Amino acid sequence: MDRRPPLLPPGRTGRPHGRVSSWSAILLLAAGSLAACVVPPPPPSSPAPGAAEILAAIGPDRIVDLSYAFDQRTIYWPTAQPFRLTSDFHGRTAGGFFYASNSLCASEHGGTHLDAPSHFAEAGLAADQIPPGSLIAPAAVIDVRAACAADPDRAATVEDVRAYEAEHGPIPQGAVAILFTGWGARWPDRKSYLGDDTPGDASRLHFPGFSAEAAAFLAKERHVAGLGIDTASIDRGMSRDFQAHQAAAAANVYNLENLASVDRLPPKGATLIVLPMKIAGGTGGPARVIAILP
Ligand SMILES: [Zn+2]
């Protein structure tokens, strides 16, 4: 067997060469200090090499924002408190500098948001208890647009999930399975997005969602970290018992609702970074969801 250490040319043994090695080391050190004198230190504002390399490797075109901005038009559940932003101060202070600050008030569940498992399971994880590792996840995007266009009350089935897997491979453990219904094109028109815009009335909503069986299959058989959807709820609008929510929460699976720009995601290969507000004991909260495209 050739026991030559790597990086040595053939015929060399790697045995140390006493004084020659010492001199080489001194020369290298001298060259190093010379270089240190000549090369200026990086300016303090430049990012650390690791961050710069990561950003350059990703490239801005591969980063997709899956969150809607929050304002007074943001769609909330008809019975929930909407988003309210009030100005505390905006303008020139007595000290002569500009200062602005707002206060916000809203339901945890509106706009692009997270449902913590504690939303529908008494012993489920709260928003602040979700392990951060499960918030970075591969996205499996199940395109059910055709079926939903034909039936706005469509509840996606286990067969829909299996049809996706037949084409794109198994949904990986720890993924977020996103139902792509096409409803995002209706945002922010409340009436067409929710199916009804009567204030305070959630009894006449129409939009598609997951069936209880599909949610349970993804949670228990595929061990997903989360379910996602481009509608207001993972349960369809006409649901009265929210069985998909119950099935996901029972397995400590979180949900992402009102996801934006799902049409920009490929069926597989994107990575989600889910950043919900970390509300202690929260049943959910507003979320910034970022996708990195493959
Ligand atoms: Zn919710």
Detailed description of the structure:
The protein is α/β, with parallel strands linked by helices. The longest helix has 21 residues. It has a domain of 185 residues: Glucose Oxidase, domain 1. It has a 7-stranded mixed β-barrel. The chain contains 7 helices and 12 strands. The protein starts with 17 loop residues before the first helix and ends with a strand. The N terminus is likely disordered. Helices cover 24% and strands 22% of the residues. Zinc ion (ZN) binds next to strand 4.
Could you say what the CATH topology of the domain at 108-292 is called? Answer: Glucose Oxidase, domain 1
Strand order of the largest sheet: 4-10-9-7-5-11-12
Number of helices: 7
Shape, principal axes of CA atoms: globular
Question: Major β-sheet, in short?
Answer: 7 strands, mixed, barrel
- Beta percentage is 15-25%
Please estimate the helix content. Answer: 10-25%
The end-to-end distance, rounded to whole angstroms, is 43 Å
Uncertain runs with pLDDT below 50, 5 residues or more?
1-37
Listed once per kind, the bound small molecules are: zinc ion
Entry summary:
With 294 residues, this protein is of the alpha/beta class. The protein has helices at 18-38, 49-58, 145-150, 158-168, 190-194, 212-221, 243-250, and strands spanning 63-65, 84-92, 98-105, 113-115, 136-143, 155-156, 176-180, 209-210, 226-229, 254-257, 270-276, 284-292. It has a domain at 108-292: 3-Layer(bba) Sandwich (Glucose Oxidase, domain 1), CATH 3.50.30.
Helix and strand arrangement:
Layout: H1 18-38, H2 49-58, E1 63-65, E2 84-92, E3 98-105, E4 113-115, E5 136-143, H3 145-150, E6 155-156, H4 158-168, E7 176-180, H5 190-194, E8 209-210, H6 212-221, E9 226-229, H7 243-250, E10 254-257, E11 270-276, E12 284-292
Parallel strand pairs: 5-7, 6-8, 7-9, 9-10
Antiparallel strand pairs: 1-12, 2-3, 4-10, 4-12, 5-11, 11-12
Helix pairs in contact: 4-6, 6-7
The structure holds zinc ion.
Residues 109, 113, 115, 257, 284 line the site of zinc ion.
